[in-house]
Amino acid sequence: MEETKTNFSRTDTKLIKGLAVIFMFMHHLWTFPDRIPLAYPIKWPTPAFKINGWSGIQALGAMGQFCVGLFMFLGGYGLYKQYASGHLNLAKKVGGLYASLWKVFVVFIPIGFLFFSNQTQYCASNLWRCYRTFRTKEFLLNLFAVETTYNPEWWFFIDYLYALFLGYLFIKATERVQDFYKEAFIVSMIVFASIQLFPSLCATYAPLQRVQNSFLCNRLLILNPSTGAFFSGITCAKYKVLDKAKLKTSTKPMWFVLLCSAFSASAVYYLRTISFERAYDFLFAPLFTISILPWLSLPVCRTIFSFIGTHSTTAWLTHSFFCYYFEPFVKLVFCSQNALISLAVLTAITIAASAVLDFLWKKIPFPVPSRVSL
Description:
Layout: H1 10-30, E1 50-51, E2 54-55, H2 57-63, H3 67-85, H4 90-115, H5 136-143, H6 155-173, H7 180-204, H8 206-212, H9 215-221, H10 227-238, H11 241-250, H12 254-275, H13 281-296, H14 299-310, H15 312-325, H16 327-334, H17 339-362
Antiparallel strand pairs: 1-2
């Protein structure tokens, strides 16, 4: 699609992904005190307000969990765009996702076993022990992301993979629906049934309790709470919701757009935080995307977040090695004991490593599957 000022372009997608990456870093740095090195505790500011029991920088870290909904929303949006253009090859897309995983796996997992298998306990959690024992079965299961014991933050990979298949089924099932409000209602009902109704029924009726933990039930009937945002992304792409929103803002004075954008984005982010319910990301993700985009489109923000967004998939797969699993890097990230400096250090290390890895991957002289972004 040709990029113009009035359509939601690939560059806009990179901007939102770049911001989602920063949210992810915030969440993993500031939300879990047991993962912070014992020698370098974060010095939390003491503000005059609390959100859901969280205070200061910890509240911002908890808010960063919103990155999951944003990645899911953009994934659904991109899936429909590919389908509508006639270029969707689901098998190739899955192969590309695994290629992105293996690109990181073949570098970082051997490093973990070779250099970080005998680390001292540097935090209260057991993350420092991930590479202590090598087992062939465990290695193979992690290679295909069936298990994620080598890097628990990779749990999102399989959930995203299932969202791709369910998203494709959703596109085909709603192909004849040509009304935005009807399709939005269908998404709402799917979210309600899979995240509220069915789990409640399983907890109430004994016959359903036996199937509640089955593979089929957990993957098709009880969805990841943020999967609704994937369906929402499909719906927004189908009815050009983001394009229409961007067109409306293009006709308004910039100062007015930025003022409204700041207010609405803050309101959505705050509401998402006080609810702490990922089930509502199917609503919050598109609203936040529309609201924050004018700010991200400013020249400085555009340069920074577009670059980060370009490497979003590799950054997601690599950042936790630097802030959780590889002791020297973990201590480097947290040694300042300052929350904002730790964020800046993790961002710099991760994006630099991701850019180098992405560059080297493109230089491989034999054919490899195309890299696919989440």
